[in-house]
Write a structure and sequence with these properties.
The chain is mainly alpha-helical and 287 residues long. It is 74% helix and 0% strand. Helix 3 (66-91) packs antiparallel against helix 4 and helix 3 (66-91) runs antiparallel to helix 8 (250-284).
Length: 287
């Protein structure tokens, strides 16, 4: 009896659909197209109001911390590289490399969110710019906050995909189901502690010059919790037999990568239109 010919997985086309594009990917492209119009509206609104600012509008160049925002932008761009490596790894069937790249992408996303939390806190508590006391604050917080929400959703999606890669081939039941639930909770705790407490604390320590004693007082407990959560994640990632995740799932990871790259591209536009243009206009305006 002749052996069946080996088939090669095509991760970019699906012959079972009329379009040749996997349905999941086609649905995501449709969502991203609508999201383009949504962000285009928010960015345009911010720029239109900036052309005719009211007298009491704050001066953005005196509010922004361009160094911090540039750093967070660089981190988000690096996350796109890690995401691309994750997609390439699963297409080659390298599950371990995919997991490492996904974790690196998640960490980069959490650092970006932590920088945004620190930035928003400074705006409100130090610069006294809120979403209600000026047109600039209203459009700025709405635009960047919406993008930050997209990043947070992406981090959650990445984390769930990472945990999904540990699903036993025998299915989720009994101890395996409990392990998965614990994995989700520990991941959520690790990500939350990182971008809500630890990254803003480190920024206060190294950028704002906060005393180390004050840093330990405010961040010591979350830092200990983060170490415990990372240790728990390492324990949960131990090999536990065959898993139901392989190169056949590459389209799922690639679809997730499309969303993440879209979020990164949107931020490049926001960073240019909202932050950099303010410094260009300031330098071109005669004093």
């Amino acid at each position: 009896m002749s052996q069946p010919a080996a088939t090669t997985l095509d991760h970019h086309h699906d012959p079972s659909t009329t379009t040749g594009i996997p349905n999941k990917k086609l649905l995501l492209w449709a969502f991203l197209a609508s999201d383009c119009m949504f962000f285009g509206t928010l960015i345009s609104t911010h720029l239109i109001y900036r052309l005719h600012p009211p007298p009491d509008n704050p001066n953005p160049t005196q509010v922004f911390n361009i160094e911090l925002t540039s750093f967070s932008t660089f981190i988000l761009l690096m996350s796109s590289l890690m995401m691309a490596l994750a997609v390439n790894a699963i297409q080659r069937g390298n599950l371990r490399s995919m997991r490492s790249s996904l974790l690196a992408t998640i960490v980069c996303g959490c650092i970006f969110l932590g920088c945004q939390v620190s930035e928003f806190t400074t705006f409100v508590e130090v610069k006294h710019v809120t979403i209600t006391n000026s047109i600039f604050g209203s459009t700025f917080f709405t635009l960047t906050g919406t993008h930050g929400t997209h990043v947070a959703i992406g981090v959650l999606w990445l984390g769930l995909m990472y945990i999904r890669s540990f699903k036993p081939a025998s299915g989720l039941s009994g101890p395996a189901l409990l392990r998965t639930v614990v994995h989700v909770l520990v991941f959520a705790a690790a990500a939350g502690l990182l971008f809500v407490f630890i990254v803003p604390g480190l920024i206060s320590l190294f950028v704002d010059g906060q005393p180390f004693a004050a840093f330990l007082h405010h961040t010591g407990l979350p830092l200990g919790g983060e170490v415990a959560a990372v240790a728990a994640l390492a324990w949960l990632a131990r090999p536990a037999g065959a898993v139901d995740f392989s190169a056949a799932n590459a389209n799922d990871v690639e679809s997730m990568g499309l969303y993440w790259h879209f979020v990164d591209i949107v931020w490049i536009v926001i960073f240019t239109a909202v932050y950099l243009l303010e410094y260009v206009f300031a330098s071109a305006t005669p004093h």
